[in-house]
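Hey,
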Amino acid sequence: MKIIFLTMYSEEDIFDEAMGLGVKGYVLKDSAVNDILECILSVSEGNYFISPSMSNLLLRRRKKMTDLRKSNPMLDSLTPTEKKILRFISQNKTSKEIADVLFLSHRTIENHRTNISNKLNLKGSHSLIKFAIENKSLLTEA
């Protein structure tokens, strides 16, 4: 699905949340007249489009992703299932809720949580939840 986000908000948190949701275009309303057609064409061709005035936020987001990978090099070693579970954890889902969605047992999810924590060198019962929530908007790209 190709989604374009048309908004009047240029705040970094909102931008990160939209990008984390997988939007393909982000257009500010104040530049919509100039950008909307270009955005639609770009997204329809399979590309991304970000209003030029938002480019600094895109660069910051990329830097945060690079920094996250540098500080957690094992993030790339997570399996696709572990990455999916980590994204669910970032949404405050319990192991039971995750198990129900993925049609897995509660115990299997708990094992994945342990493996994720070990790979990311996270210690303590809440460190995985804290890590996931703090990096929520970046985990869709991890």
